[in-house]
Specification:
homodimer; mainly alpha; two-stranded antiparallel ribbon; 11 helices; DNA-binding
Chain lengths: 226, 226
DNA sequence: AATAAAATTGACCGCAGTGGTCAAGAAAGG
DNA sequence: CCTTTCTTGACCACTGCGGTCAATTTTATT
């Protein structure tokens, strides 16, 4: 047993051939993400991963450590694939939000389980008892992200007859609504290779509408001035 | 055992004093709504309801029938307290949606468990295997409701430079976003007697903004014409 | 080749909690 | 008083769980 990144884990797991390691990781993420901590079954995990029961507890001390590992990996995944790509310097709120959603969708399409696991663990409060440190890390991450997401926005772009916070809410709810429905639609159709490029066209059209409706009439964008 | 409303149930349950019947009903709804079918425990139900284990199976044949009963009751509750109050003749879409949301919120505040149970059973697909007839009834109810909700809208109220379906989506997403957040905020504060009247003020303000932004400039509403 | 060490297996264990039963007793009705 | 209805909770068989470990195979070392 050894400490790596704050999580004690048998060395053996890291020495595995990457293929097998990956298979186990995916099985673990999938099980916890779809079932939640309580319902998740180590038997199903080993079955899905194609290893013997004993191996799982050779690599991980117990179910709780296994969950901690899954949780930490999910946080890392979201941080690297999504949060790190956020651009808080973009003053145009719609553009900022747009980039965020597009990053999120790409990360989600690449692997939805970390998202599902975190959402699940967060609302079912599993993580509080089992991994309070990671739970807090997650809370800070989101609180921090949200705070920055809505800070330093160039509100002079907004139409002046509405309060900026109202405009922000309208944009937020609209985009969230659109992405929720898009993701829900993806659940039904199975495909892993969804054509995000066509979906993005709808999305950009939506953003154009939001601009037209909530921003100042664009005298011009400086593009063809003079 | 006897058939009532399509569900076979021991007569005995209906003969109970209303208090006890109500206590049992509430315990059943709460358990299935919060735990889902699999996790729901008959032991917890009898404990919560304050009756002996034997009585539950004296009133209901088994867990499945119990779930059917809870499901049917929830459908009935939503139909009577919410769906029946929808007004599909209102041509102004925002007004129509507004009434719907306010009805829904009132029904939800009165008793959230039927909503939670149906949502849970629907997404976890519990109802398909256990009560396919009720599942289908539920599906038809929602499909029907949605279809009517968005039919026969007076699109001449909308600003003409945007496609009506876009405007409808914007309104839908905004209002849904607002109500989701309002409900989420309610979860955190416990109180059963939430002051909906003040919440409704925010809501109406939101609607006014939507009108200003998505409807034609109101030359007037006929109120002070002439 | 021989030996030691590491990796892997899956049958097995105790256990917690499940849905469901039923003999026994209490209450109510005639 | 007897009969019927209601009510109890100890009890049961069972399932699936997390976790173990003696035995076996594979790999590394000498």
């Amino acid at each position: 047993m050894v400490k790596k990144g704050g999580i004690p884990i048998t060395e053996a797991f890291y020495k595995l051939e990457p293929d097998k390691q990956q298979r186990i990781l995916e099985a673990v993420l999938k099980e916890f993400a779809t079932q939640g901590y309580d319902k998740a079954s180590t038997n199903r995990i080993v079955q899905e991963a194609g290893i013997a029961k004993g191996m799982l507890f050779y690599y991980f001390k117990n179910k709780q450590e296994l969950f901690r590992y899954a949780l930490q990996h999910s946080i890392k995944y979201l941080t690297e694939e999504y949060v790190s790509k956020l651009d808080y310097t973009e003053p145009d709120f719609i553009t900022r939000f747009q980039k965020a959603v597009e990053s999120k969708m790409q990360a989600y399409l690449k692997n939805p389980y970390p998202f599902a696991l975190l959402a699940n663990a967060y609302i079912q409060k599993d993580a509080i008892a089992i991994a309070p440190d990671l739970y807090q890390e997650l809370e800070e991450l989101t609180a921090n992200g949200l705070q920055q997401m809505f800070a330093n926005i160039d509100t002079t772009l907004f139409r002046p007859d509405l309060a900026p916070e109202h405009i922000i809410n309208l944009i937020r709810w609209t985009i969230d609504g659109w992405s929720n429905e898009t993701i829900a639609a993806l659940q039904n159709q199975d495909l892993i290779d969804y054509d995000w490029d066509t979906g993005v066209i709808d999305f950009r059209e939506l953003l154009a509408i939001l601009r037209k409706v909530l921003y100042k009439e664009e005298a011009d964008n400086g593009d063809f001035k003079g």
